[in-house]
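The aim of this short unit is practical: by the end, you should be able to scan a pair of folded records and say something sensible about each. We start with the first protein, listed as its amino acid sequence and then its structure tokens.
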Amino acid sequence: MILFGTGGIRGVMREGEFDEKTVMVASKGVSNYMIDNNLKSVVIAYDTRNNSKKFAELSAKVFAADNHKVFVFPDPVPTPVLSFAVRYLKADIGVVITASHNPPEYNGYKVYTSNGVQAIPQITDILSKYVEKAWNLPLQLSDNYHFLDDSVLNKFIEIVVETVNVDLNGLKVVYTPLHGTGAKPVTDVLKKLGANVITVDEQMVPDGNFSTVKSPNPEDDEALIKLKEYMKKYNIPLGIATDPDCDRVGVIWKDSRLTGNQVGVLLTHMLLEKALEDSMVIKTIVTTDMVKPMCAEKNVQVFETPTGFKFIGDLIEKSNLRFLFGFEESCGYLAGNHSRDKDGVIGAALVAAASKKFDLIEKLEELYEKYGYYFEKLLNFKFNDISIAKNLYQKIKDGNIPKNAKNVADYSKGINGIIPNETLRIDFDEGKIFIRPSGTEPKLKAYIMVNSKNKKTAMNNLEKLTNYFSSFIDDMI
């Protein structure tokens, strides 16, 4: 189990890992933190996974037993709605029960601070200590908590519609929530903006087993098979999928799945057209650099953060600049001021708006020709145990690097004002590779980035670095 990694506490739902005791102890730890810091109110949300509602209500009972003011959503809602609710209701803490796009056997527990940002390391480091102490404390439960009505979700939908503010009349889109929480809000927002929405009916029903997909991750082609079938059946070029907690967006345009980086580039391009003075775009360090020359042309600043959207949310809160757009390569997008976490609802609406303005693939090619062919590839090295990934990472960090590496940058030492984090960047003649152990799964992740004015050169360099680094890791194992 991962304790407050990139996505909070996350583990497999089995006794002794992510179970009722884990949820109660985590809640007791957070509750004690609240008592010591004079925090009094908490909002709790949950996704469509197995046991999520039960875990949310157990959590509520622990907080209620400590006399906190506790509000629980009556139905599963997107994670960004929890972020919005914390801000809208002026709550001190938010909790969401979700394991995002992980396989069905997983669940998780994420904590948000009063600004609607998922708790950053300086908070989770403290929370971890409280949670550790709580394992040995008596746990009491109380039913003195309140269910919210639909007004919070309805307000969220209303604000997203106002923020996007485009006329989608005449646009047809196929949408699937992959059995998750996006079913109502995404469909409502698209329809209110005027789009004709065809839904993948089999996947509109909440199902914690995600039984119609091999993976509920919209970054994976195998999650989008039904979506493609519906697109073909109805002859519609745009297909959109959101993951179970509706904070990521998968996009298909005319048979091609666009990567998170490509969608981020297209949305940045669209939003830059209306960028005001003192605007900023924020991305993670492992996300495409293509937006840098695009933003420079419009005098919009680009800021970088460690991996994890909480760092983007945190920077929005701390900066005096006007927030235009934030995104990460793993299909997370945010615009507007309603939420401080990646939002699949506004992401889906922005993608629909972009597709109404231009052909997504043609526009991408036009942007490549103008700014250079920025190509990226993510390599996932999967292991049975997270310690294997961490050990491999440590070996590379200790100097066991590829022979033709030109330079190594260690982000744990703090680089360019970016919050120190466990990431290495290895520079090569062909491009660069960022390496980090996953904060949510037993994986080592390698993000390959190349760019060239010549498309063929960029493709060759990407292939070369992919093969070279894969062999390097195989040899290490």
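Turning to the second protein, read its sequence before its tokens, just as you did above.
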Amino acid sequence: MKTNELREMYLSFFESKGCVRRPSDVLVPKWDPSVLFTPAGMNQFKDHFLGRCKLEFTRATTCQKCLRTGDIDNVGRTAYHHTFFEMLGNFSFGDYFKREAIHWAWEFLTSPSYLNLPKDTLSVTVYKTDQEAYDIWNKEVGLAENQIERKEEDENFWPASAPSEGPDGVCGPCSEIYYHTPLGEVEIWNLVFTQFERKGEPTGTLENGLFNNLFPLPSKNIDTGMGLERCASALQGCTTNYHIDILRPIVEAAGDVCGVKYVPTDENGRRLRRIADHVRACTFAIHENVYPGANKEEYVVKRLLRRGVLDGRRMGLSEPFLWKVVPAVIEQMKVQYPELVETQEQVQDVIRREEANFLTTVDNGLGKIERVFNQMKAENRTEITGDEAAEMYTTFGFPPELFETIAAERNFSFDWDGYKEAMRKHGEESGAGKRVELFKSGPIEALKSEIHNSKFVGYETLTVPQTVVLGIISNNKAVSNLTQGAASTEEKPVMLVLGTTPFYGEMGGQIGDTGWIRSNGDTISVKLGDTPLLALTPEERKLLISAAPAEETGAVPFEFEVTDTQNNNGLLIHIGHLRSGAIRVGQIVSAEVDEKRRHSIERAHSATHLLHSVLQKYLGSHAQQRGSKVTEDTLRFDFSNPQAVPTDILLKVGKEVNQRILEAAEVSGKVMPLEDARKSGAMMLFGEKYPDDVRVVTMGESKELCGGTHVTNIAKIGAFKILSEESVSTGTRRITAITGMKVLEYMTAREEVLTQLAQDMRSSIDELPVRVEALQKEVKQLRKELAEAKKQGGPSVEELAKMVEERDGYNVLTAEVAGGPEAMRELSDQLLRHVPRLAVMLGSQMEGGKAALAASISRDLLAEGFDAAKWIRTVSKMIQGGGGGRPEFAQAGGKDGSKLAEALETAKTTVK
């Protein structure tokens, strides 16, 4: 059975069982801070499992794109490990449970209408105390006792070992299904029964053998996962997943690109499998606009590509090659993911550039690693130090995991704690970072479980005369009331949740609204007392329908200043301070957004859409949004582009945005099904997660999916001005711009500067360019004359020798001389011949206010660890430059000659 056939058969089977077929979630779920990449099929259904959203369906089935790097060192070496893989799954949210999940799995595996596997080739495992699952397999399905194995919590519980080791939260036993082939047994399916909530540490066990810290959930769920590649491998009789019909062609294509015949059992065969896996993973990630970078998911992409480059280097390749494997990946994956074809050229370009960047340093880096290993052997040392690893990353771009892998091949260990400390001192982070818990819990999450979503009316109005307070959170606790002047209101902001609100919560780059929430003291007629809303019964909550006078409830008027609004997956959180009075849950309130501020944000947001559209016109469709920040009449827009935007193009972009503003097109926002939006030609960003129904915002030629707020007519933007265009990371550019009155303020300030400058230069504004050019020529001539004068002077070798300072066992000299690099090299050589055990650094002023440095170390000091290249790097930054060289001689240049004397003085203290 072909892999594509298996995928479709699985999804169709569970559709026949009433499951709704859902598309794969994005590979990088930006909405979920607990993960960098989607690790499993259940990830997109977290809120469904926890009851934090309104359920539009209670059964689902998916084929999810996943990426994991926990076992990255096994990729290519074992039969089943991947970074990128597809996970088939079926899910239940308080609907079907163990009996159906087990029977349907057995039907799909053994029925002649589906996989038709012989029943005697299958076996299962269950959690040791899960008698219910055991009996279903044994008494209902008919598996013999020798086909069912009971296992401990580290094998058959999710999360692994949760009862005894945690974390607290949703958990449950699982049942794994194994397929026995002539090549061995393969786990092809895992059925997870999320039926408990873990609370605290266990203090004993119950009669059924379960720990007493496991409490039954009111709504039991099903989460199953079948690895597509692993199941296809078993069905196709392959010895490894990499030989199935959609992966073997990629491996062999990698061999063709590398000029190496694929032999599965040799070291190059393992390298080719690893290259195939990593290129497939990076193709999907870059397609979703995740480019190689220094942090988080971008760092993972960089690390995978550099592992691939190193594998190629070890097979003799010295030019970029990974990008040539991308077409083979897309050819095999386009049946399920046809959108990959649209970004093939972009993906190849990004990979090629990253390869080229790494190849410029890889040989020097490998040479440095060999020197480190030789030094370790000489010192009888077996651990790579943190400083050594940090230098390899900051100087040569070697990810520490890659260094660790190379070290492990020589049986050397790696000091991770030392590396992290060294990187902290260097001011960088590898992107590993701390991960937050998978199912976060707290007062906001509890509110979301009760309320699900807020009703947002801020598209139509900025004021709501009557709504109700549904929740109050103070000091990270849900409370029923709050009084102004209490310590909790003074120290930290308070959070309010309203039934209906005009306040926009920060999302999609647009910052949250500010304003006021007020009450005259009316409250909803419910016996609240000191009970938070969350503690009310469903019947009591249904009574939140009618207002009662203040004197009947004890409620008083209040004013609450909203300083920020956040969007927690549909629940709008109003953050601010209680300025007067007291708030109670159930109180009737009015809500009013700061109108002036909201309109200034809308101007910037609408201008962002126009900018995006115009950039694509002038740069091409690859110039897709990679991030944005919209504040008051200011926007920051990040987009994909391999190089800086030429000045003439940038001017055309700014001009056309303003021309479109003058066209005064109406702005409309219309909610429609996602497929209809796609057919309408609305711009969609790869890597973004869209709901079934989306809002399409149209303004002239621009049509995008957007949930933000906008001006009603683009003429209201007023004006648009680009302030800067710069690099953010490899392949990503950033434009900062302003709109509305800020443009007028900016132009007025610039005019004032020009007027003052013209007065100082005794010229008109129009004549300033000619006057400045004349001044520049004059300064250049004067500097030239000064340099010539300095060449005629400067200390001689004999005078420099007298300036040598004797230190503890060596001599050091730093001095400023005339003549530039050649003169410094000649003077250094003469000094080394006259003065033993000498470390010398000379500096020279250069044209244009620049400076140069040269450092030399005598041979008798080299053996003691003195290094000219390291020495010169300690001070070259002081002159705004950089340099390098060999241990015996190094050079550097910098832009700031005014700091030369200071750099030379500092060099005396850093030579060792």
